[in-house]
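Justification of computing resources. Each target in the renewal requires a structure prediction run like the one illustrated here; the chain below, 335 residues long, is used simply to show the kind of job we budget for.
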Amino acid sequence: MRRRFRIPASLVAAGLLSLGLAACGDDTEPQSASSSSAPPSTADTASPTSLGAPTTAAATFPVTIEIAGRQVEIAERPDTIISLSPTATEMLFAIGAGDQVEAVDKSSNFPADAPVSDLDGIAPNTEAMLGYQPDLVILNFDPSDVTTAMDAAGVPTITLPTSLTLDDSYAQIKALGDATGHPGEADALVAQMRSDIEALAATVPDRTEPLSYYHELDSTLFTVTSNTFVGEIYALAGLANIADPADADGAAGGYPQLSAEFLIDADPDLIFLADTKCCAQSAAAVAERPGWSALAAVEAGNVIELDDDVASRWGPRVVEFLETIIDAAAVLEQT
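Resulting structure tokens:
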């Protein structure tokens, strides 16, 4: 049985990396591997494609979407979409379905023209959602049985939980492409992401000893291990996670809470703060913590203040996240 563990306040406020950091506007939920949103895809091997270029995949309806262990039939192209997932919102706009999005939850702060509403992805109000007369609802998770209520109203609902791998993310983008009538655009986006990520990873130098890092979720020292989506991105940058021994048995679901002593003893080369928005953390604030001023990363100025949203969502901006990590490591090695 998995031991009980406390989720950091920054994650609870937004609903966990699948329940989203509302204070930071992202989606987050520690999960076991068995809850993966979709099996890794081996078919997404298209060559890089300009997102503005013509694509051959055609929209077909009715369409059945199978993701997160559930099949959802969509009879017609949806024109009134509600997204209660900041990550799904980013995906929808990236594949050209933004004009079909009628309302998004209050944490969906990107892109800037997303139609933000008072809808809450953490505590969904079914009556308020139905007031928009949606023909598709997209959730990050379902805390109050929204799916059952929407089914009763004849509204198809898709739940896209936190991705555990990049392949999960690609599968979700493709599912949204099929569901919204933009399969070609979704294929092109996935191809572009794959190409960009491959190109960035190719710039990572071979190192005799990998640089180590600590990724902070909140100031109480909750973090991620390599067995998470975020950890996979760091691995692509060739970095070693100091937190892995803290959850060697997976009991914390990849989200352990470290002690200050553990972190100071590990003395990471790089510290990445993913709690700058939600929790007002900064390089200066970290340096003021007892014992932290002696850390190598603090002394050398290798504390990187991340955009919480970019660092926690598994949509198209993972490319930007990876680039930030690689650039930070390069700066360290140039000093």
